[in-house]
């Protein structure tokens, strides 16, 4: 069986047990479950989800499903970083964390690293970029201002 991350947009093996990525297909979510993924964390707001009912599919396959809507810079905040941190506890891993492109995933990972995990600003931004934050995108500047 092929690794479910093959063909998954902007997939990054961020940390042991955590894959960050863009939007998976229904088939990729089913393959992720078959390969042991326990949790799907979706950062896309409801209005962006049009292809299939991801929550229903994750639940049908027995995975935990966590929805943390992140529409833009205002949603990169402590409350959402805490929700992400709570979703990524060891018992919930392996996990797939995604948005449309991985950009917002990287942004929230950077914020989590700075304010929940207490890493310095440089390391936090680096972790965000590794997780999918676009180094050439406008969200980078907004996150950099937030984390200092």
Describe the structure.
The protein has 148 residues and is of the alpha/beta class. Helices cover 41% and strands 14% of the residues. It has 6 helices and 5 strands; from the N terminus they run ββαβαβαβααα. It has helices at residues 26-34, 54-60, 78-87, 103-115, 121-131, 138-147, and strands at 12-15, 18-21, 39-42, 64-67, 95-98. The protein has a 5-stranded mixed sheet with strand order 1-2-5-3-4, with helices on both faces. The termini are far apart.
The major β-sheet equals: 5 strands, mixed
| Total beta strands | 5
Given helix and strand content, the structural type is alpha/beta
Helical percent range?
A: 40-55%
Our measurement of the CA-to-CA distance between the termini, rounded to an integer number of angstroms, reads: 44 Å
Which strand-content bin applies to the residues? Answer: 5-15%
Large-scale geometry: globular
Strand order of the largest sheet: 1-2-5-3-4
Tell me the series of helices and strands, N- to C-terminal. EEHEHEHEHHH
> Helix count, per DSSP?
6
Radius of gyration: 14 Å
Poorly predicted residue ranges = none
Mean pLDDT: 96
